[in-house]
Specification:
The protein is α/β, with parallel strands linked by helices. The chain folds into 2 domains: 135 residues, TPP-binding domain (Rossmann fold, 3-Layer(aba) Sandwich), CATH 3.40.50; 82 residues, 2-Layer Sandwich (SIR2/SIRT2 'Small Domain'). Helices cover 28% and strands 21% of the residues. It contains 8 helices and 11 strands. The strands form 3 sheets. It has a 6-stranded parallel sheet, with helices on both faces. The longest helix has 15 residues. The protein is elongated, with a radius of gyration of 18 Å. 38% of the residues are buried.
Length: 226
């Protein structure tokens, strides 16, 4: 069974109503990302950071997977599919995909601010004073700017075994995630779905200039006919 590796980003979640990470002005939901997405920001103003992610979590619980998520899950009928996502939402899983790696963490999990291995499911607001079992403040299970990406090695290993690569909803501009496509074997088919694919100047990449949902319809047709 051929192995499809999918690299996904905020564009696929946007069609479900979740805002992309940064708007054109560099702000995320009106906040400077450096004020809400760094360890320094959490140390400086933990209440602001916690409330920012509380709002993101509440929003996530109000939206549903879209057809692009469901089309990706449909591929599992015919292929082994591994999804490596920069998204912190659970829409791939709710859409039916069974193998999902979250490079940047998961919004519906929390972890101890003292022990980064102490990770657990958490769908409620996190407030200052909410403690882990060891008595330390808990924080969102999010990889902030300046922190290591613990799933990166696993993601590289997965990319190295790809027979087909699909890139969807990401400009491939954020590192280290942007480097992953270069670990895929040479000469495999690469499909890039983006309504404005200005950043992809790579010979051999099949560009589909459509939204995630419309682009995935094309992918299903192409793969069914291959």
């Amino acid at each position: 069974m051929k192995h499809i590796v999918v690299l996904s980003g905020a564009g696929i979640s946007a069609e479900s109503g979740l805002k992309t990470f940064r708007d054109a002005d560099g702000l995320w939901e009106g906040q400077d990302v450096l004020e809400v997405a760094t360890p320094e920001a959490f140390a400086k103003n933990p209440e602001l950071v916690l409330e920012f992610y509380n709002q993101r979590r509440r929003q996530l619980l109000e939206v549903e997977p879209n057809h692009a998520h469901e089309h990706l899950a449909e591929l599992e009928k015919y292929f082994k599919v591994s999804i490596i996502t920069q998204n912190v939402d659970d829409l791939h899983e709710r859409g039916g995909s069974s193998r999902v790696i979250h490079l940047h963490g998961e919004l519906l999990k929390a972890r101890s601010s003292y022990n980064e291995q102490d990770i657990f499911e958490h769908c409620e607001d996190i407030k200052l004073g909410d403690l882990c079992k060891a008595g330390h403040q808990i924080r969102p299970h999010i990889v902030w700017f300046g922190e290591a990406v613990p799933m990166m090695d696993q993601a590289i290993n997965i990319c190295q075994t790809a027979d087909i690569l699909i890139i969807i909803g990401t400009s491939m501009q954020v590192y280290p995630a942007a480097s992953l496509m270069h670990y895929a074997p040479q000469d495999i088919p690469i499909y890039y779905i983006d309504p404005k694919p200005n950043n992809m100047k790579n010979n051999g990449v099949y560009i589909i200039s459509k939204t995630a949902t419309e682009g995935m319809k094309d992918i299903l047709t192409i793969l069914n006919n291959s």
